[in-house]
Structures are given as C-alpha cells and as structure tokens.
Recover the amino acids of this structure.
C-alpha cells in the first residue's frame, strides 16, 4: 500500500517540476500552472484521505468528502492570499482533489 501511495504521489507531483511549472503568468484554462494545481491538489487529497481513514477512522465515503473539502478549502485560502483570486485555479484544485480522492478510495 505504501508503494502505491508513493507512485500516485509521484505522478501527481510531476507537474511541479520546473519544466512543467514555467508559465507566462497568463490565466489560461490549459496553462501549465493548472497542471500544478491539479497535481498538488490530487496528491494532497490522497494524503488527506489516508489521514482521515487511518487517524480519524472515518468511513471511505466520509474520508473522501472530507479530503476533497479540506483540499479545496486549503486552495481557497491559498488563492485568497494571491494578488488576484483565480477561479480557474480553484477549478483545477477541485478537479485534482476529486481525482485524488477517487484514486485513494479505489486503492
């Protein structure tokens, strides 16, 4: 199980590498920055899901929703501290959180 978590995290964190993360600063829907948001949110959701399941002893369903809510809330706080709030970044965060929680539930 630990190996699977490491592999999933590595796949989600790949977009953080400098080659992927460089962006022209424009807020486009398919900018490389959005891949970073999806990757970080997905990895965070996998971690949060496992934390809720193992530490808080939540059911699979409750852990899924709590992990998505936690990651989206963290993303909203991050966006609120940016110079300009981006709904596109928030959408990417929500997509990544959902994918991460779904993957964590399946494995």
């Amino acid at each position: 199980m630990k190996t699977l978590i490491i592999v999933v995290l590595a796949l989600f964190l790949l977009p953080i590498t400098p080659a992927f993360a460089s962006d022209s600063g424009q807020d486009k829907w398919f900018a490389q920055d959005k891949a970073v948001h999806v990757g970080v949110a997905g990895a965070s959701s996998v971690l949060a899901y496992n934390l809720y399941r193992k530490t808080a002893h939540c059911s699979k369903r409750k852990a899924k929703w709590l992990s998505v809510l936690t990651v989206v809330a963290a993303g909203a706080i991050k966006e609120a501290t940016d110079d300009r709030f981006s709904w596109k970044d928030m959408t990417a965060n929500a997509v990544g959180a959902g994918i991460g929680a779904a993957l964590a539930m399946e494995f």
